[in-house]
Amino acid sequence: MPNLTYLNCSRNPLTSIDVSKNTALIKLCCANCELETLDVRNNTELQELQCHNYNIGVIGQTSNNLTSLDLSKNPKLTTLFCEDNFYNITLDEQNSFDLSKLPGDFDVTKTSNWSEGATVSGTVLKISSPRPWKVTYDYDLGNGEKATFKLNLTYHSHGYDDLKYDENYHWQECGCGERGSLTQHTSYDNWKADGDIHYKECYICKYKMVEKHEIEVVNAKEATVFKPGYTGDKVCKKCNHTVEQGKEIPATGFGIDISGAVEDIKDFFEQIDPEIVDDIKEQIKDVIENVDPEEVADIVGQIKDIIADIDPEVVEGITEQVKDTLDKLIDVLVSIFDSEGLVPSDPDKDPESDSSTGETDSDTPNNPDDDASIGNSNESIPNTGAAAGITAFAALSVAAAAAFVSRKKKY
Fold first, then answer.
1. Number of independent structural domains in the chain
2. What does the pLDDT average to over 374-395?
3. At what angle do helices 259-270 and 312-339 cross, to 10 degrees?
4. What is the mean pLDDT of residues 198-210?
5. Of 249, 275, 296, which marks where a domain is finished?
């Protein structure tokens, strides 16, 4: 509609209107809209312009938000209503605003007469105390016209988002970078272990205050001759977490290998008449049954005390003595059993080789006492054999005990 001369669109929620093609326009009424910009530079025939706000504060009333206007191309304009235009701005944390962000073709060089509390440097508006809720300024419209515009101020209000933290503090942070509620971490007293580290967790921001374990070895015990030792557990002194379990250390033993002596004794006993062995066992049982348990306990206690007090250096000194003693004991036992006739004769041995005189038994007079002795040999052998058997059994027990004590040597 290039021939349109009058247009009234007031009190409509219009944010912009385009009248650039209405070159014949003489009167334009656009009061109480929601205009942020208005361009009438092509309307050279324009004589009256109404772009003001009235009845401000009425509920539901729309308002224009112009911050500038260019009337330099409207030489015929005689009537202008441009009062009470305002625009809302939000200041930053420094109470500043960049005027180049205003809508339209705002030109800061055309402004003047800024109200109290407002200063302009370049394109930056700075608000000082006391903090006003609005500022006003005059704007050069061209053709000798000026209008006053208003900026409603909203001061920066910190909007804090999620908690942020470092190794010492946690806080809330505004988008402007301002920190609020800066507080040191607060944790519970108990440590939590995780691999090679332990940590305490801040119960506000969940930050983990991490430390490495402080290791110490506990429950370590040296091995003795009879008792195994323990390398000890690796435990953190702060959190009491067991980082590594210890291992058992074998008992040292006497360092004696008497396996050969034990085998000799076992071979020797295999040659004894089974009936005599059974009789020996019965007699040993009778002896054991008649032993006072308190005496045994006392003896065992004394033995334990003696063993506990043995100096390892002394043990090394008696090693060879123990070996010699076992060898002599075996020799004594063999001679005892041989004298009692408990050891079977060697079938390959010459019967006459035992005679040192070369005389036969028929040449030697018989002694009646000897005959009696021979006649009663079956009765006497078990008793003397039992005595020798008990001695041998005791020796075998000693050897077995020594072998048990020294078993760790094999490790």
1. 3
2. 42
3. 20
4. 77
5. 249
Residues 134 and 12 in one domain: yes
Residue 394 lies in a domain: yes
Beta strands in 232-302 (DSSP E): 233-236, 242-244, 248-249
Residue 164 and residue 106 share a domain:
no
Q: Do 114 and 212 share a domain, yes or no?
A: no
Question: Which CATH number belongs to the domain containing residue 26 in this structure?
Answer: 3.80.10
Position 377: which residue type? S
- Which of 249, 280, 312 delimits the end of a domain? 249
Buried b (16+ CB within 10 A) or exposed e, 135-170: bebebbbbeebebebbbebeebeeeeeebeeeeebb
Query: What is the Cα–Cα distance from 16 to 380, expressed in whole angstroms?
Result: 141
Shared domain check, 184 and 117: no
Q: Which residue has the tokens 């910009």?
A: 37
- What's the whole-number average pLDDT of the chain? 75
Q: Which DSSP helix (H) or strand (E) runs through 212? A: strand 208-212
Tokens representing 331 are 């020799």
- pLDDT confidence bin for 227, thresholds 50/70/90: confident
Q: Within this chain, do residues 240 and 276 fall inside the same structural domain, yes or no?
A: no
Task: For residue 222, give the 3-state DSSP assignment.
Answer: coil
| Pick from 250, 218, 222: nearest CA to 232 | 218
pLDDT score of 355: 43
Residue 274 within any structural domain of the chain: yes
Which has more confidence, 171 or 236? 236
Residue 396 shares a structural domain with residue 264: yes
227 found inside a domain? yes
Lowest mean pLDDT among 177-186, 198-207, 301-310: 301-310
Q: What is the DSSP string of 85-132?
A: -EEEEE--TTSEEEGGGSSTT--GGGEE-PPTTEEEETTEEEE-SS--
CA distance 184 to 188: 13
Instruction: Answer yes or no: is pLDDT of 320 > 80.
Output: no
Question: Quick check: is 402 in a domain?
Answer: yes
Domain that holds residue 233: 160-249
Residue-wise DSSP of 155-173? -----EEEEEE-SSEEEEE
Between helices 368-375 and 377-405, what is the axis angle to 10°?
60
Co-location of 237 and 266 in the same domain: no
Q: Are residues 122 and 233 in the same domain?
A: no
Q: Count of CB atoms within 10 A of residue 83's CB?
A: 15
Classify residue 398 as exposed, middle or buried by CB count within 10 Å of its CB (0-12, 13-18, 19+).
middle
192-194 and 197-201 as β-strands: parallel, antiparallel, unpaired? Answer: antiparallel
- Tens digits of residue pLDDT in 277-287: 777 777 767 76
